[in-house]
Amino acid sequence: MNQHPLQVELVGYCNLKCNYCPHPTMKRPKGFMSKSTFEKVMTLVEMASEKHPIAFHNFGEPLLHPQLMELLNIAKDHVPYVRLSTNALLLDIDKIYELKETGLDELVISLHKPVPDHIINLAKEVLPKVTVYGRTPDENHDWGKTHDGVSYGQKCVFRDFNTYVVLWDGSINTCCIEAEKQLQLNVDDLLNGKEYKFKNIPLCKTCTVAPQTWE
Predict the structure, then answer these.
(1) Is 192 part of any domain?
(2) What pLDDT digit, counting tens, does each position of 87-114 carry?
(3) Full domain range(s) for residue 89
(4) Could you tell me if residue 104 is inside a domain?
(5) Looking at the 3D structure of the chain, how many domains does it have?
(6) pLDDT at 154 exceeding the cut of 70
């Protein structure tokens, strides 16, 4: 199987404290992915025998990153499809046009608090693709932790494609709904030839997110 990052956490900080999200109580350190670490992630992309889309989001708000546009420009030289997820509270007219200039393929807006309609409408006019998800009290993400159902054996992109999440500091995490570090593995390990192979973590037993698909 190919080893390939599927999701990259550019920022460990968030400008929200949603009561249904693990981020406010997350114990691992928070920070911003450095350009040098990002370039290592792109090297991992080049080492994969097949190129896959990459989503820039995990736990944290990517629009907080001071070098975001520069990193997205770099990504477009390595990745066939770049998706950025945001709560859009920091999205404004200037940022929309800056995102367009990077060649971003898709902006995903996850509404946790109201965002002005004119901002969302402009993003839809300017950017190639904008996907908007709403949140209501009965639609809150359970992060795989609040149900007893076991979904292992169904489709999981991390398991089926042997992919992983790269955290802001270069650490490797199993999947996108695990808030804490589960693996003693980082980008340098993989660049130096250490193999990554998906293994179940405790969260897999209660995961309700899979099955999911990827374009």
Answers:
(1) yes
(2) 999 999 999 999 999 999 999 998 888 8
(3) 4-206
(4) yes
(5) 1
(6) no
Q: pLDDT at residue 190 above 80?
A: yes
Considering the domain boundaries, does residue 211 fall inside one? Answer: no
User: What CATH number corresponds to the domain at position 59?
Assistant: 3.20.20.70
105 lies in some domain = yes
Concatenated DSSP letters of the chain: ---EEEEE--BS--S---TTSSGGG--S---B--HHHHHHHHHHHHHSSS---EEE-SSS-GGG-TTHHHHHHHHTTT-S-EEEEE--TT--HHHHHHHHHHT--EEEEEESS---HHHHHHHHHHSS-EEEEE--TTS---TT-S-----BTB--HHHHTTEEEE-TTSBEES-TT--S---S-BHHHHHTTPPP-----GGGGG--S-S----
Task: Output the CA angle 215-207-14, nearest 5 degrees.
Answer: 75
Q: 60: closest CA among 97, 4, 18, 91?
A: 18
